[in-house]
Backbone:
């Protein structure tokens, strides 16, 4: 049995702001059948600690970046969790990263240095807990663990760093370095120094034994300047330890046969229940859908996700007889734009600003097609859920979207393997062409149903990726 300490800033269902939480929450269960035991180290946010009322204090720190802290162990909702109970760092309601004013917490450098420091202490077994074979760090918030371990005495566990989104790098000014407790030698080009400051993701990529990202295509993209965003040179230098491992989804949570959020259950073999969900979705969003394509979006509203292109393309979507149901929140100007579009086109565009898990499930079950026009997408989970639920993904040909959706081109249709629609480049014109092509596919009900069933029969589970991770862990543990 390989023991892994998974280190992250969020994990579903305890705390979630995005897909990172879904991945961190699902991996332990997926890995267990492959001989991997995962403990997940999380900050002790109020939502995490409230889910651990019977937690056991297993370690104590007299001073963790400005105050005492404890490590609390429990197994809430089936996860083996260690939570850092440090009220001075994590005892704040709301978003884990930003305050009520929408700005990053001023002490995020210390808050997530604490996550990395505790991970290193647990990883070395000096916190009184059994040392794992592997410390697996997710994104920049956990990245400093690699530096703490690199400069700690032996024995040390092996380390894996996973990049979920290169756009979020955890850069802080050089003035924070003195408070981190790292040796002076760590502040250099071969250490944590990055553009004159401290780079938490850079630290992970510099020192981790293995680097993964969440799709093979994204692993290639981040080695180029446009995708690497300043870290492409380091990644090219370490290319021999970089690989892409596709994400999956929890197929028990995302199961249209048993999903309590749906108006009617259904399956690939018996898809009739989708009609009831389509009607329920239209009613919830006040849409007059008719026979046209009911398009949907479930997304963070940002330029990265290409939602500005969709807003510009709305005349084409409406022109082909389509309607739109959107669930999302993000950049205020995009929230305002889609809200304005909904007000201008009642019955054709319905918008929910925010995130609601029940609505997300109903959207996947009721929409004809799910739009993911991202400018870059490390993996994406929403298109995987769409495949499972029979909503055809309409996606830009980037990153994990390119790796998971088979375009309904003539060859794929003839071979009977198409699962959605891809378009490239990520531009308004290409998106508009994809909307027209989707409407044409939808007009042929037999063809549409065949593509829909192909998607629903796709393996979007964690099984294959869990085997890949288990093999990677085992190889590292032997070295």
Residues:
């Amino acid at each position: 049995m390989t023991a892994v300490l998974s280190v992250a800033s969020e994990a579903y269902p305890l705390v979630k702001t995005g897909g990172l939480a879904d991945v961190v929450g699902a991996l332990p269960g997926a890995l267990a059948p492959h001989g991997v035991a995962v403990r997940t180290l999380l900050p002790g946010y109020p939502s995490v600690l409230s889910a651990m009322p019977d937690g056991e204090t297993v370690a104590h720190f007299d001073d963790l970046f400005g105050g005492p802290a404890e490590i609390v162990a429990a197994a809430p909702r089936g996860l083996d969790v260690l939570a850092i109970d440090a009220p001075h760092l994590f005892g704040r309601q709301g978003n884990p990263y930003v305050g009520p004013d929408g700005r990053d917490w001023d002490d995020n450098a210390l808050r997530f240095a604490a996550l990395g420091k505790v991970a290193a202490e647990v990883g070395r077994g000096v916190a009184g807990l059994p040392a794992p074979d592997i410390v697996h760090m997710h994104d920049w918030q956990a990245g400093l663990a690699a530096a703490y371990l690199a400069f700690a005495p032996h024995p040390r566990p092996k380390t894996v760093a996973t990049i979920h989104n290169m756009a979020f790098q955890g850069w802080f000014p050089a003035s924070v370095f003195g408070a981190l407790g790292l040796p002076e030698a760590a502040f250099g080009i071969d250490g944590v120094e990055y553009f004159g400051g401290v780079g938490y993701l850079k630290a992970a990529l510099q020192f981790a034994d293995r680097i993964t990202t969440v799709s093979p295509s994204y692993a290639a993209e981040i080695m180029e300047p446009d995708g690497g965003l300043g870290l492409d040179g380091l990644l090219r230098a370490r290319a021999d330890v970089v690989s892409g491992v596709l994400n999956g989804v929890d197929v028990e949570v995302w199961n249209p046969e048993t999903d309590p959020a749906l108006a009617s259950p259904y399956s690939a073999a018996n898809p009739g229940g989708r009609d009831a969900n389509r009607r329920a979705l239209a009613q919830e969003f006040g849409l007059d859908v008719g026979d046209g394509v009911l398009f949907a979006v479930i997304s963070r509203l940002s330029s990265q996700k290409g939602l500005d292109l969709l807003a510009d393309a709305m005349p084409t979507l409406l022109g082909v007889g389509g309607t739109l149901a959107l669930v999302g929140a993000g950049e205020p100007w995009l929230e305002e734009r889609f809200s304005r579009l909904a007000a201008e086109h009642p019955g054709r565009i319905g918008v929910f600003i925010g995130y609601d898990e029940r609505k997300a499930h109903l959207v996947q079950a009721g929409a004809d097609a799910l739009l993911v026009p991202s400018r870059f997408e490390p993996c994406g989970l929403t298109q995987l859920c769409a495949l499972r639920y029979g909503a055809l993904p309409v996606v830009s040909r980037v990153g994990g979207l390119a790796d998971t959706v088979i375009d309904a081109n003539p060859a794929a249709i003839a071979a009977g393997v198409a699962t959605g629609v891809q378009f490239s480049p990520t531009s308004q014109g290409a998106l508009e062409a994809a909307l027209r092509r989707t409407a044409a596919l939808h007009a042929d009900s037999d063809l549409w149903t065949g593509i829909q069933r192909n998607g629903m029969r796709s393996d979007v589970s964690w099984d294959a990726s869990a085997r890949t991770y288990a093999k990677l862990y085992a190889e590292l543990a032997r070295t």
Remarks:
- The chain has two domains: 2-248+462-478, 271-456.
